[in-house]
Write a structure and sequence with these properties.
Layout lengths: L1 H8 L4 E3 L1 H14 L4 E6 L11 H12 L3 E6 L3 H4 L14 H15 L8 E5 L1 H4 L3 H9 L4 H4 L3 H8 L6 H17 L3 E5 L3 H13 L6 E5 L25 H9 L3 H11 L4 H12 L4 H16 L2 H14 L11 E4 L4 E2 H7 L6 H9 L3 E3 L2 E2 L6 E2 L2 E7 L3 E7 L1
Parallel strand pairs: 2-3, 2-5, 3-4, 5-6, 7-13
Antiparallel strand pairs: 1-6, 8-11, 9-10, 9-12, 12-13
Helix pairs in contact: 10-11, 12-15, 12-16, 13-15, 15-16, 17-18
């Protein structure tokens, strides 16, 4: 039980209620009956990034302990739209959009989870049959006063911003998922805490033992500022090519690297601690960053792909190493012409100077020489170099 608790707590933000979870673990160990562990994701976009894998990694760790993990695709709740952390009403998705996005979700999640041991469910299974009568009966089990305890609802109400009635249904429907699945533990990001607690309350209302909740931190994107998000261009997709994935991970700052180690690496924490101490005593942090990038690439591709990605990366930078501390620049306006990006990033004084450097082969992006003056850069994070000494890590949105 002690080992299981250590696994549960690694990297987590909060475990509620810890004593209840310990009791569940003891009971499971004594009876041999696995606990039911739930993670729900709404298919609001077609692809997953490594930020999503923070909770998926935790699911896999608990799965490896022998517990039953349930990967829940919120095809019903996605039509409502999760209001968590938002100051405006989220536009609901159409059924066609949801189905298209859901097709790839489980296949990509299976790159982390053991697909053969994972129960996959869709919450339309029990939400659709509720009907109008069932929805009213469910809504009667929770008060408006409790719902308005949500921080984002409170802020919007006080600020005079609209809150649609259907948004109030979202936490109820997510909580009802826990009832339908008889969940022992539900995982989610820190922004999901309120919704997870609603699940506990509804389980009590339906005569079930309340689930425990385990929240995981929201992973910062490559810029080290905002939550990893495809819309912000600061993400690493789990289906990206090995070289692209490796290059993006090598672009993160040294302080952010340790955050990624804690939340993404499968290495023991003691080993990570020793590595951090070695870097503090003079070892090049780049060595540690290479280890992290290779581990992530190998997880989603192969060992051979990770080795090749490293070889390609080193070949690109053989002419000169990237300084350890380079300026971080945030720009908006993607897709942006490369000359404009160089100017706005402060790497050249004018677009004409940018054009001259491009023509002379003096511009590199992620180590690759760029000579196409018509190139436009999509949202993303790039290490940009002009000449031998001017560098910037540019996050373009």
């Amino acid at each position: 039980m002690r080992h299981a608790l250590e696994v549960s707590l690694r990297g987590c933000e909060e475990l509620l209620i810890r004593s209840e979870w310990q009791a569940k673990l003891v009971r499971s160990e004594a009876s041999g009956e696995p606990l039911r562990i739930k993670l729900g994701l709404d298919p609001t976009a077609p692809d997953l990034h490594i930020g999503h894998t923070v909770v998926l990694n935790k699911m896999r760790q608990l799965q490896d302990l022998g517990h039953k993990v349930i990967f829940l695709i919120g095809d019903f709740t996605a039509m409502i739209g999760d209001p968590s952390g938002r100051n405006t009403t989220r536009p609901p998705l159409t059924r066609e959009q949801i189905e298209e996005n859901a097709r790839t979700y489980f296949n990509q999640a299976s790159l982390v989870l053991d697909a053969q041991k994972t129960e996959i469910r869709y919450n339309s299974e029990w939400c659709d049959p509720l009907g109008a009568r069932g929805m009213i009966e469910l809504a009667a089990k929770y008060t408006l006063a409790r719902m308005m305890e949500r921080d984002d609802f409170t802020k919007r109400f006080k600020g005079g911003l609209p809150i649609s009635v259907h948004e109030l249904l979202y936490p109820l429907m997510q909580g009802y998922d826990s009832v339908a699945l008889k969940s022992d533990l539900e995982l989610g990001g820190t922004d999901q805490k309120f919704n997870l607690l609603v699940g506990r309350e509804l389980q009590r209302e339906y005569g079930q033992e309340p689930q425990c909740i385990l929240t995981m931190p929201l992973l910062e994107g490559l810029d080290g500022v905002d939550k990893m998000s495809k819309s912000k261009g600061n993400y690493v997709g789990i289906t990206e090519a090995p070289a692209q994935m490796f290059g993006k991970l090598m672009s993160i700052s040294d302080p952010l690297m340790w955050r990624y180690f804690t939340l993404l690496s499968f290495r023991p924490m003691a080993e990570i601690g020793r590595l951090k101490e070695e870097c503090a005593q003079g070892r090049n942090p780049r060595d540690a960053k290479v280890m992290l990038a290779q581990e992530i690439v190998e997880r989603f591709h192969s060992r051979a792909a990770a080795e090749q990605a490293l070889a390609d990366f080193e070949a690109r930078f053989r002419e000169g190493a990237i300084p350890d501390d380079i300026p971080e620049v945030l720009l908006a306006g993607a897709p942006m012409p490369v000359a404009q990006l160089l100017k706005q990033a402060g790497l050249v004084p004018s677009t004409s100077e940018a054009m001259r450097n491009l023509a002379q082969g003096g511009v590199r992006i992620d180590g690759a020489r760029v000579e196409d003056r018509a190139l436009k850069l999509d949202p993303g994070t790039y290490v940009v170099q002009v000449g031998k000494r001017r560098f910037a890590r540019v996050t373009l949105s």
